[in-house]
Design brief:
Strand order of the largest sheet: 4-3-6-7
Largest sheet: 4 strands, antiparallel
Radius of gyration: 23 Å
CATH architecture: Sandwich
CATH topology: Immunoglobulin-like
Strand content: over 45%
Number of strands: 7
Shape: elongated
Number of domains: 1
CATH superfamily: Immunoglobulins
């Protein structure tokens, strides 16, 4: 049976040290809400997106925010980029953008949001958004 001193020495020898860089400790997380106006878009008319993006990251970061709408066949209907947006922990950004579709637009398009690290363009986060249905 080990003595208390031997057990204490054994335990302190196993503790070791752990060192992390700020980059290793950084956690990037957002919550996005995308609203489309009108909710039933019409070909040849303006479609507006309102993106509310909330940072739940634990560090300040400068990012590019990309909102895309892809048609069902995968082709790009619309892309909007907001460059150099500075997010602090728990900060909320509200971004609005509109575009006019072609008069021949039909079918569905899926909206997505991606957050890219501004300096490297590394994808930090992405999420699907609403579906647009053109009639």
């Amino acid at each position: 049976m080990p003595t208390r001193l031997g057990l204490l020495l054994l335990l302190t020898g196993c503790v070791g040290e752990y060192s992390s860089t700020p980059e290793e400790l950084a956690r990037y997380e957002w919550v996005a809400q995308v609203k489309v106006n009108p909710t039933a878009p019409v070909a040849g008319r303006q479609v507006s997106f309102n993106l509310e993006l909330t940072s739940h990251s634990n560090t300040m970061v400068v990012v590019d925010i990309v909102l895309r709408a892809h048609r069902a066949d995968g082709s790009l209907l619309h892309e909007q980029v907001w460059s150099g947006v500075t997010f602090r922990p728990q900060e909320v950004w509200n971004l609005t953008q509109g575009f006019i579709t072609s008069t021949s637009e039909r079918g569905n398009a899926t909206v997505s949001v991606e957050v890219l690290e501004g300096s490297t363009q590394r994808s930090l986060w992405s999420a699907p958004g609403p579906t647009l249905t053109f009639r």
